Amino acid sequence: METRDLIIVGGGPAGMAAALAARAAGVGDVLLLERDQHLGGILNQCIHPGFGLHHFKAELTGPEYADRFVELVKGDPGIEVRLRSFAVKLTKDRELSFLRPGALEEVKARAVILATGCRERTREMILIPGSRPAGVYPAGLAQKMVNIEGWIPGREAVIIGSGDIGLIMARRMALEGVKVKAVVEIQKTSRGLVRNVVQCLEDFGIPLYFQHRVAAIRGRDRVESVDVVRVDDGLKDIPGSGFKITCDTALISVGLIPENELLEMAGAEIDRRTNTPVAAEVNLTSIPGVFACGNACKVYDLVDWVTRDSGVAGRMAAEYLAGGKAV
Amino acid sequence: MKRIMTCIECPQGCRLEIETDGSRVAGVTGQKCPRGAKYARQEIESPMRTLTTSVLTRGLELKMLPVRTSRPIPKGSIFEAMEAVKRIVVTSPVKAGAVVAPNFLGLGADLVACRSIAKL
Question: Does A327 map to a domain?
Answer without folding.
Answer: no
